[in-house]
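Lab manual, section 2.4: Encoding a predicted structure.

Procedure: take the sequence of the chain (506 residues), apply the prediction step described in section 2.3, and record the output as structure tokens. A sample record is shown.
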Amino acid sequence: MWCPFLSTDRARRISGPGRDERPFVLVEKAKGALRIGAVDAKAAGLGLRLGMMLTQARALVPGVMTEEADLAADAHLLHILAEACEIFTPLVALRGQDGVILDISGCAHLFGGERALGQAARRRMQMIGVQTQAAIAGTPEAAWAFARFRHGTLARPEAEEALARSLPISALDQETGTTLALQRAGFKTLDDLARRPSHSLSARFGKTLVEALRRVLGQEDIRITPLRPLPAVMAERQFAEPLGLKETVLATLERLAGDVMATLEARGEGGRTFEASFFRTDNTVRRILIETAQATRETASLMRLVRLKIEALTDPLDPGFGFDALRLAVLHVEPLGEAQPHLDDERRVAEGARDLTDLVNRLVARFGRENVQRFVSCDTHDPALAGGTAAWLSSAPTPWPAPVPEEPPARPFTLFAHPQPIDVLAEVPDSPPLRFRWRRVLHEVTLAEGPERIAPEWWREASPAPDTRDYYRVEDANGHRFWIFREGFYEDTTARPRWFMHGLFA
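Recorded output:
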């Protein structure tokens, strides 16, 4: 589907039903002057064209209306159009700045055939307030060419190439210079080009032209790249009468969940990421994303999370005049075998793990993915950077290093975010402290182990660069154990070494 007047239709949409019907253009500043960036149908019929200076346009059509162009708003509207078309197929892609491509393979019979589907899609665009030209063909490039130059075409496979050969040269959608050169060379239609050897065309106009010709003629098919990845499993239901009651919507969604879970069970898989899409009659699409800590195919637990997610929405799920369709898709799946019976102790462990997973799922559904964190270890020798937090549902964290049996821990249980300065009496240059004062309390050192030298991670650009540190594990006369370090060396005459308390073992 091609939207020839997307920009002006968007501006007209904003002005409402009492709009002015005079010729309308959008202007943008280019090369130090205001030039036309978009025209509506009336302005185009009066000879106004893209790139024309505004002064020249006003000389030709004195009453022309103008407004400043807004490319970001145009792109947003085109994205809304593409989302509205997902009610027909999940394979929807944008084409340039004013087109939408739908792959309707295997979908047309659900809407009464290809022609009926095309008409329904155009009606949906008209409801949004955008004029469209549409066509159906076997390849994306052929459909795009027919939509622009032979609106309403439904190209059958046996007749598609013959129809495409009658299209003008500009249907190849090449650069202006290339199109002009082809026309000056005497080529008028694609049939004129198709009769020439491809190697001569490639040598004169480049390989891109030959590829475009083959694709428009249907001889080569490049599949579209959809806006959204195709889900692993999907179930949907469309309604002759829109649904407006929340409980009816949830009951329908639960039936879709049952269908999805049955498919996953047949595949031996479970879902980790689910997406519920709600298509409203005003072409607005609302989506709810549900992520789980483990793969699941339990309908009841999924629906509990859906209800929690809906209750936690800052923008309530308003049906408006009702929902035309509901869709439940599984975006991420993992292998999931059958549940095995456990002995009593194993059953308690399994139930504890399941309770934790259920808790995480409920917290994520209510508070959001990034607000539920877990502690993770980092691959670094710097103790200040060795631990951190990450979203619970993120990729599997690096496992914590296992302690050495019958050995004291190498790192303290309590690590201060900011090392605290202490006063130390120690033999130089590398002896452990004999006594130290921390928080006005004097500690006599009875046992010490070290030093463990830790240097800054110079290879990390974002890493802070403190001085090299010598760490000691010490125990005082009362049996308390501490982790302290000396920053700097006594051999360095420019700065006096300093001592810090970094953590507590007990």
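Check your result against the sample. The first strand starts at residue 24 and ends at 30.
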